[in-house]
Every structure is written in C-alpha cells, then in structure tokens.
From TrEMBL:
Top-level taxon of the source organism: Eukaryota
InterPro entries attached to this UniProt entry: ARM-like (IPR011989), ARM-type_fold (IPR016024), Mo25 (IPR013878)
Any one GO biological process: intracellular signal transduction
Family assignment from sequence similarity: Belongs to the Mo25 family.
GO MF annotation: an example: protein serine/threonine kinase activator activity
Protein name, UniProt field: MO25-like protein
Species this chain originates from: Capsicum baccatum
Length: 223
C-alpha cells in the first residue's frame, strides 16, 4: 500500500497540472483558493522522500513560481498561508539539498526581508523562521553576506523590538542567536555602503526584482 501511495504522489507531482496550483491558490473565490492551498500543502508535506525527490528535480521553476506568484502576491491571505508552507518545506530534513540552494539566493533573501516588514505578526514570524536559515548558513555567498552587512544596523534594530503575541522561549533564543550572528558577521569584499543612507531610520530595506535596493512605503496588502 505504501509503495502504491508513493507512486500516486509521484505521478501527481510530476504531472503538468502541478504548475496550475500556483494559479488556483490565487483565485479570488475563497473556497477554491483555500481548497487548492490545502491540497498543495498535503502534497508538499505528507510523503517526504517523494517530495524531496521532486523538489531537487524541479527546484528552479518551483521556487520561481512559488516566490513570484505566492510570496510576492498582493493578497495577504495568500502570503500568510504560503510563507508557512515554505517553512514546512525548508525545515524538513529530507529537503536539506533544496534548503542549501534556497539560502544561497539573494532574491530569496530579498523576499524574506520584505516579508519581515509585514504588519501581520504571524507573517513576520514565519518569515523569520526562513530568514534565520540564511544567517545560520556557514557557507554564505558573498552577495548574501554583503546584503546582511549593509543592513546590519537596521536588522539589529528590528530584532531588538521584534516580539510575538505569546511568550515563546524558543523564539527568543532563536532571535538572540540570529542577532548575535549578524552582529559578528564579517564582510567579504567591498560593500555597496553608499546606499545605506537611502533608508529611513527604523525601516528595513526593500529590494526590487533585480536585487537592487530601493525606497518604498510599507506595502498595503489585500486583506
């Protein structure tokens, strides 16, 4: 039975219909979008070894679709649901190869830094759980190090005041470790420090789709 179930999962994941989930999860009809999201979550979290195999083979298009259509959606509910799914995927030990690739991308870092600025504490918390993987990575690419270094003071200021609604010792420990890692991080090569002055005090930076720093007022999401 287990073998047959695995084959069914594999068939669904490898079908041409997989890409349609990214559209269905954004449909304006709430029931359709909700059902699509729940089904997608089941596919991505239930049969871990099969999912891991799929993600390794389809990393590029999967993360491109996931990020552009879901994590950068104008709809708050879409972001709220799917940043949590991303956390499930990245923190699953079966997906360690995918996680390693994910934390090497400055575009992924850009998206998470933007999500840390969301008004929703839940979205901020889920974004934090993914962001901390970038900081914990012992083999950070130079551009990842430099982005964090350039924004170090703002990140440390943010984490100093970042609270969750309920007291959570593990969260506080993780946050303290992330802040420590950021404070002790050393640059690799020249920093583009000329851009530091662009950001108002107390605000995290916004990046455009090319990974360039830009000024933007706080995004207003459809709720």
């Amino acid at each position: 039975f287990s073998h047959n179930f695995s084959n069914i999962y594999r068939s669904v994941l490898k079908s041409k219909h997989m890409k349609k989930f990214f559209d269905y999860m954004q449909i304006i009809e709430f029931d359709v979008a909700s059902d699509a999201t729940e089904t997608f979550k089941e596919l991505m979290t239930r049969h871990k070894s099969t999912v891991s195999e799929f993600l390794v083979e389809n990393y590029d298009w999967f993360l491109t679709e996931f990020s552009a259509k879901l994590l950068e959606s104008a709809n708050y509910i879409t972001i709220r649901q799917d940043i949590k799914i991303l956390g499930y995927i990245l923190l699953n030990l079966s997906n360690s190869a995918l996680m390693t690739c994910y934390v090497g991308s400055k575009d992924n870092l850009r998206i998470l830094m933007n999500l840390l600025r969301e008004a929703s504490k839940n979205t901020q918390l889920d974004a934090f759980h993914a962001f901390k993987l970038f900081v914990a990575n012992r083999n950070k690419p130079t551009d990842i190090i430099n982005i964090i270094m350039v924004n170090r003071s703002k990140l440390l200021h943010f984490f100093a005041s970042f609270k969750v609604d309920k007291e959570n010792e593990q969260f506080e420990a993780d946050k303290a470790q992330v802040a420590k890692e950021i404070a002790e991080l050393k640059a690799k090569g020249p920093l583009f420090s000329a851009e530091l002055h662009k950001f108002p005090a107390g605000h995290l930076p916004i990046y455009d789709h090319s990974g360039h720093l830009m000024i933007t007022e706080k995004n207003h999401r459809t709720r």
